[in-house]
Amino acid sequence: VHAVDRKPVECPANDGSIPRIRHRPDHAGRCLVIVIVVAPPCMTAALGALGRPVLQAIAAVGRVALFAGAILGHILRPPFYLREFGSSLLQIGWYSLAVVGLTAIFTGGALALQIYAGGSRFNAESVVPSIVAIGMTRELGPVLGGLMVAARVASSIAAEIGTMKVTEQIDALVTLSTNPLKYLAVPRVVAATLAMPVLVATGDAIGIMGGWLVGITRLDFNSAAYLKNTVDFLETWDVGSGLIKGAAFGFIVALMGCYHGMNSARGAQGVGAATKSAVVSASVLILAANYVLTE
After folding, report:
1. How far apart are CA 54 and CA 51, in angstroms?
2. What is the CA radius of gyration of the chain?
3. Whose CA is closest to 294, among 73, 157, 134?
4. How far apart are the first and last CA of the chain?
5. Cα within 13 Å of Cα(174), Cβ side
6. Cβ neighbours of residue 120 under 8 Å, at least 6 residues apart?
């Protein structure tokens, strides 16, 4: 703002912006020249292109948080659909055991080989049993198990609920005075939250067994010494922290599957997009939650 005695003021803009000049007299008889600089259209478009995805991401986080809050609010409220809970527990827990077990046994074996290769450079081959056990229970067991369950369960839940929405079965539930969130989402979320720690514990045991098999068959470890080192260096919190992660990952997997299924667009293309979004979002959130829980 420039105060002058009714003399014109030139304010050139060297940055490509567009100046707008406003004249306004003050009480002393001078003229206040107000220069308003307006950003060029190209800069406005660029800022809009950057800010729009950020605002959309914040809005999506808010919608997911409200959805999760609604599920948590319905967990302890009747009615309880025990049949849906039992079916979900079977689908999520028992039928995921094979893929989690295969992933764990190969991961444990590969981990033993890699640790042996690195430890041999420092004459520290004896650390293989303890590091395999700690790595599987604290990190690899929960994370890889969660990712495998996300690939299998989140996609299944999103496709199932999305298809029910496309075929108007969810509308039929509303017509029958049944809350779709209570009937479809709550049993799956509770079942996944309870089943994942069991899957993680099973995967930990199978992964440690995979490292033991590789150790005694390929790395010339004594079986009794390998198991003794595993038990001596493994602490209760190592296993407990992995089980806590498993429960959190199970909640995330079912939450993302139910959320994207409930918000699926119409048609086969919409169901496919919801399935893809459920797997991607569940996987990313599992990795992010793993860092937060490890911290």
Report:
1. 5
2. 29
3. 134
4. 51
5. 7
6. none
With 0-12 CB in 10 A as exposed, 13-18 as middle and 19+ as buried, what is 100? Answer: buried
In the block, which residue shows the tokens 């003050």?
26
> How many angstroms separate the CA atoms of 189 and 90, rounded?
13
Q: Which residue has the tokens 């567009």?
A: 18
Task: State which H helix or E strand residue 267 sits in.
Answer: helix 267-294
Amino acid at 142: P
Residue of 156, 159, 162, 185 whose CA lies nearest to 71: 185
The label of the residue with tokens 């002393």 reads 28
Q: What backbone torsions phi and psi does residue 34 show, to the nearest 5 degrees?
A: -105, 120
> Could you count the other beta carbons within 10 Å of the beta carbon of residue 13?
12
Contact predicate 138/220, CB 8 Å = no
3-state SS class at 264: coil
Handedness of CA 70, 73, 78, 83 (dihedral sign): positive
> What are the 10-residue block averages of pLDDT along the chain, 295 residues in total?
45 48 53 58 76 87 93 89 93 93 95 91 87 94 95 94 91 90 94 96 95 92 92 91 96 96 88 94 96 91
